[in-house]
Structure prediction request, 222 residues.
Amino acid sequence: MNTYPVQLNLNGSLCVVVGGGRVGERKVRSLLDSGAQVRLVEPRDSAPACRLAGIERIARCFEPQDLAGARLVFAASDDSEVNSTVAELCRKQGLLCNRADDPTGGDFSLPAQLRRGDLLMTVSSNGAHPGFSAALRDRLSADYDESWTAIAALARVLRRRRLTPEEAETYNRKVLQVLQDRRLPGLFASRNIAGIESVLREFLGHDFPTEEIESLLPTESS
Prediction:
């Protein structure tokens, strides 16, 4: 089965997570990072997800009314019967549901993710082997370290600074060459402003404001 890849804007949207174990906790954290409002249905006070701040907690077993107002639903309970019930109710109500214990039993699955600022890389095995997807994500993580957060920010700045519509094609081609230059990750990682300026000048043919480069540099702790 071929799935359709998509990025959703969940800012301010209500998402329901049924089950607050380790899997549910990961779902909740990811949703909060995306700006979603999260309703967690979990009867156990000791469940990991219950310790997270900024969520609405329903401290009992799942009931159908818990889905009211939801945009997305995640069935992440340790009980497969509960997950099956949640998925079936979602189908009847036209809600998209992710079923953690059975990717084919829900409407969508979540890929392994690697985020570097504006840059988001995902790996999916279509639900066949999530561990394999995670292993490939970890391999990508070694190749795309935190310096790529700064390079992604540079991409945004360079796109904004495009000179005129007539020069768009030529300028964009030069920008792509800059962003793929093998020297940039090391230069950003070492906070080598002069080196970054040199690469930008080489491709773009003009100086780049030093203060803008400084604003893109990773923090010392990175």
Observations:
- Residues 147-216 form one domain.
- Residues 114 and 121 are 5 Å apart (CA to CA).
